[in-house]
Each structure stands twice: as C-alpha cells, then as structure tokens.
Write a structure and sequence with these properties.
single chain, alpha/beta, 2 domains, 11-stranded parallel β-sheet, 6 helices, 23 strands, about 25% helix, about 30% strand
Length: about 375
C-alpha cells in the first residue's frame, strides 16, 4: 500500500519497548533511594553509637577520678589508723572505700597489712551507671614498741670476761618474765652480746645460756654500740630522756627505790666521772632505768630490776645481779674510745633477761608512734 510522503508505518512493539525502559528506570531510582536511605540510617546509627561510646568513656573517666580521689582522701584522713570503710559524695557521683585485713605481721597484732579498695560510680544524664575500682596495699604499724631494745642479758661493747670461773655467775638470755602478766614473755635473746671474740672465761661458756648463748658477730665495739639505737650523747646530756633522780654522790644522793609498784620504773642518772669506779651495794638496789656515765662496781648483794646503761666498764662480785638487761661501754659512742672489758668476778652473780622489766625501763627512752604507710608500687585498677 502506498503511504503519503513522510508518514511512518505503525509498529506496535516499539511502544511496548518504551514502556519497559520507563519501568526499569523507575526500579533503579527506587533501589537508589532505598540504598541512600539505608546509608543515611546507618550513618545516623553509627553517629549515635559513637556518641554513646564517647559518653560512656567520659562517664568511666569520671568514675575513675571519683575512685582514685576517694582512695587518696580515705588514706589521707589519718596517719595513725585505718578505718574499716568510708563513703564520699561529689557533684559527679559517689565512691565507697573498704579496708580489708590481709596479713597480721607479728604476734601482738601491732603490724597489719591491709588491702584498701575504692569503687567510684558516676550516673550520666543519658542513663546508666559507670563504675571504676582502684586499690593499693597499706601497712598499719600500731607502734608502741620501744625505740631501744636489749640485744642480750649483758651487752658489752668492750667485751666481757668471766674471771670468777664456772660456778661464779649465771648469765641467761632465756626470758624469765611472767607470761601471766607480760605479753612479751618468751622473747629469748643472747645471754652475752659482745664484739667479735669479745668473750673470755677462766672456765668454759657453760655459765651463759640464751638464743644463742653468745652473740659476737659485730667486728668492733663501736659497730655494736651503733646498732643499739641508743643516742648516748642526748641521754647523758639530759635531752634524750627525763631524769627522775640525779645522783652526784652515791653516798648522799642515791634515792631510796624500795617499795615501788610493779609499773614504777623511774630514771636514775648517776653523773659521776671521778672517782673512775663508783660502787653500788645492797642499799642502792632498786628498779627502773639506771644511767651511769663512768665505771661502775657492783658488790654487796646489789640487785637491779630493769635496765642499766653504763658509759664505762662494769665490775661485779658479791652476789650481785640484774634482772632485765645490762649494757656497758656506751661512752664509745661519744668518745670513739673503746671501753675496757666488763668483768664478772666471784660470788654467785645472776644476770637474767626479763623482757617485761626491760620493756618498762626502755619505755623511758620513747616508743615508736603508730603510722600508716602506703606500700609503693602496689596501686592497681580492677577492670
């Protein structure tokens, strides 16, 4: 059939193809919109997650600061005791601290290791609660111990000689304190403490007993004296201890110390440099802390309960003795000159260590104060 010029023949498939292309384009657009929407939602969720993580991190840091500050405040309240617990409040939240006894370090419970733990809690405005826990080890030292103690029934920086023989004396570091009245009873010490090779006897060492019987590990008398913790210069100068009695003449000034109570341990200072030898006999017997600057001779049944600190040497004879502790040759601390050898003569002498008497006498020289010490390197955080 003949068509006019310029007229195209009708093609039914051609129209159907155009509609198919339009549908495919619409599908692509819809898929793209869904993908973009998903990306937008994912972006929002990611942003919200990051925001929440940031908020949680900030809350955790605040909880950490609360715990650490509470721990420091708790330990800083007192340097003499540890409270069982504590609680703290601040605008950022709260914290609780708990002290737990871990180890008792000595029999009388005067030294205890504690674990101290602080838990800080912060509740952010967005909800939830963040907590952090920190802790450290702390040593509590209850003090009360003498700053000075006796290292033997007899301690002589100039050495000790038993010139009286086997049967003349008994020297024992085995504690004779009564356990029913003295918590420290049983604190055995050496019978004799002297410098290296500082003990000699006419017989054998059987007059000496203790734990060990003889301690002579110090190379010199000065090193032995320095190990005692005795500030001899301050003591004889009157600044290291308060004197209850000052004796310038044993014949005229020595106090009557009979009839004292079981806890009365006064300080008697015998300030005599001449004559070089000063005699103490039965009528000077007593108890407490006896300090003598020069040489001393014990005779005529003299007996002392407590501690005797002697600057020079000591000679003993005639049934004398000390129950507690005896230290001689302390002038080496101020003069540097070694003391002469202390001598135990004849007459049934007895020098017996008594921890109770020694403790009561040495208390005059001061006791250690209670203290709380944070153990270095023990700070930890529990996650």
């Amino acid at each position: 059939m003949h068509r006019p010029h310029g007229e195209q023949a009708f093609d039914p498939d051609r129209k159907r193809g155009a509609k198919g292309e339009d549908g495919a384009a619409l599908t692509i657009v819809l898929v793209a919109l869904v993908g973009l929407t998903a990306l937008a939602v994912a972006g929002m969720l990611l942003t919200e997650t990051e925001l929440r993580q940031s908020q949680n991190a900030q809350a955790s840091v605040r909880a950490f600061y609360l715990a650490d500050a509470a721990l420091n405040d708790f330990l800083g309240v007192s340097d003499t005791l540890i409270a069982p617990s504590g609680s703290y409040t601040s605008p950022d939240g709260t914290a609780t601290v708990q002290a737990t006894q871990l180890v008792i370090l000595n029999p009388d419970s005067s030294m205890i290791l504690y674990g101290v733990t602080a838990v800080g809690s912060h509740a952010p405005a967005e909800g939830g609660v963040a907590t952090r826990t920190v802790s450290r080890l702390v040593l509590w030292d209850g003090g009360g111990r003498n700053k000075v103690s006796a290292p033997g029934a007899i301690t002589s920086t100039g050495g000790l000689r038993n010139s009286g023989g086997i049967d003349s004396a008994s020297v024992s570091g085995l504690d004779v304190a009564d356990p029913s009245t003295c918590p420290s009873a049983g604190s055995d010490v050496p019978g004799v403490t002297v410098p290296e090779d500082g003990y000699s006897t006419n017989g054998d060492t059987s007059i000496v007993s203790g734990n060990p019987p003889i301690e002579d590990s110090y190379p010199t008398g000065l090193e032995l004296a320095q190990s005692l913790g005795i500030d001899w210069g301050d003591i004889v100068g009157g600044t290291g201890v308060s004197f209850d009695y000052v004796v310038n003449s044993i014949k005229d000034d020595f106090p009557n110390l009979s009839g004292l109570g079981p806890d009365d341990f006064p300080v008697t200072f015998v300030d005599l440099s001449a004559p070089s030898k000063n005699k103490l006999a039965a009528k000077e017997s007593g108890q407490g802390l006896l300090i003598a600057t020069g040489d001393i001779e014990l005779s005529g049944e003299f007996h002392w309960d407590g501690v005797m600190l002697v600057g020079g040497r000591l000679e003993a004879s005639g049934g004398t003795g000390v129950t507690g502790a005896l230290v001689t040759g302390l002038n080496v601390l101020t003069t540097g000159i070694p003391a002469d050898t202390t001598d135990l003569g004849h007459g049934g002498l007895q020098f017996l260590f008594n921890s109770c008497y020694a403790h009561k006498a040495f208390k005059n020289l001061g006791v250690t104060p209670p203290v709380v010490a944070e153990e270095p390197g023990t700070w930890t955080e529990t996650m």
